[in-house]
Amino acid sequence: MDSILVKGGGALNGQIPIAGAKNACLTLMPAALLSEEPLTLTNAPRLSDIKTMTELLQSLGAEITALQEGQVQAMSGYGVNNTHADYEIVRKMRASNLVLGPLLARFGQAEVSLPGGCAIGARPMDLHIHGLEAMGAEIELRDGYLHAKVPGGLKGAEIELGFASVGATENIVMAATLAKGTTVLKNAAREPEIVDLCDCLRRMGAEIEGDGSPTIVIQGVDRLHGATHPVVTDRIELGTYMLAPAICGGEVELLGGRIGLVEAFCEKLDAAGISVTETDKGLKVARKNGRVKAVDVTTEPFPGFPTDLQAQMMALLCTAEGTSVLEEKIFENRFMHAPELTRMGAQIEVHGGTATVHGVERLKGAPVMATDLRASVSLILAGLAAEGETLVNRVYHLDRGYEQVVRKLSGVGAQIERIKS
Ligand code: EPZ
Hints:
The chain has helices at residues 22-31, 48-59, 87-90, 100-107, 126-134, 166-176, 192-203, 235-248, 263-272, 310-317, 337-343, 373-385, 396-401, 405-410, and strands at 3-7, 12-17, 39-42, 63-67, 72-76, 84-85, 109-113, 138-142, 145-149, 158-160, 182-186, 207-209, 215-219, 227-230, 250-255, 274-278, 282-287, 297-298, 323-327, 347-351, 354-358, 367-369, 389-393, 415-419. By secondary structure, the chain is of the alpha/beta class. It has two domains: 3-19 and 234-419, UDP-n-acetylglucosamine1-carboxyvinyl-transferase, Chain (Alpha-beta prism), CATH 3.65.10; 22-230, UDP-n-acetylglucosamine1-carboxyvinyl-transferase, Chain. Strands 22-23-1-24 form a four-stranded mixed β-sheet. A four-stranded mixed β-sheet has the order 2-15-17-16. It binds ligand EPZ. Ligand EPZ is lined by residues 23, 26, 94-95, 121-128, 163, 165-168, 307-308, 330-331, 373-374, 401.
């Protein structure tokens, strides 16, 4: 397993290009199953999770061609002849469950392995099932698989989600595009990736309104046609790299960044003493005068503070002046980066879903272990500002969601290298 060696150093200056959003691409790719005509995605990120989704869709019979080194994914759902999403693939990536809605909508049946838990939580699918059953699907859990069928075809329904689940919203919206009649989805997730999915589905001929608000209305149509769609900028990669100059000093421009993608995050950065300026190319970020100030953070569904930036924000607050309280309200076990940061001299007390961080002047480099995707990059951020060397192990987690980390950070002056195992 590869590692990444980071040498704590001075300020970072320059530009970092931000890629297309992993979490948009992982729902846009299954949308190709909804049509017999090809769907082409541009600005696709080159990540191992995208390769896993490609493998899954190909196992169902879809044809996928990665063009321009994977930045373009040309997909055809025409040849799909299998509706069994196997555990061997699904267990590697929870987002595999996003083929459930499209398979039910286009083929009236699906066998999708339950993803099983992951490091950050149990990750159940009760909200997905509730919504699809409301549309007429019969779904039975047997031998670790969801066996779903809807002999007479999906029908539009009024559905209210108990929690604004991103994945459940995506599965239900995709299924509803081909259902008979109108579906009203209440307490829907509002993330930019949901809006991007709906933009793509509208390009394919779907009739959808209200995405980005708590209520989405979908008018079912008989069929969807092919389209070409640019994947939206990755707001989590954006927020992650905004923290590099915040934690090290200097000024970095994040190409492709827009304030609208990270509004709640920017409010917290402003309170912490970090300046963010929108330019015609992206976002310029710099630390204002003096030390970062402590701020409290609570993760919430969009437009609240994103859970996927909690670990990275904690790395910044480890060196802030004062005490910060972070509340993780989305996942039950998303503080695994805390003990690793403690190894670097951070002072963090974790009680259930609350972490209290007492800022220290400077962290000290140490060997640490990546435990999940966002934790891995928070350790790299900490290492950039720490005294001495930090060796981050198990960086395969990183490859799931961040392309070219070493190149992007080296490009702004970081002393970072990948060590092949
Ligand atoms: C998406 O996961 C993202 N993944 C996650 O990003 C992100 O953290 C999460 O949304 C929240 O923003 C992708 O888009 C591929 P949820 P998802 O359904 O859809 C509970 C990353 O780092 N829940 O909104 O699985 C669930 O257990 C990943 O890129 C139910 O109880 O998130 C969790 O506690 C990590 N029942 C909470 O809701 C359900 O049926 C949020 O889950 C579904 C979810």
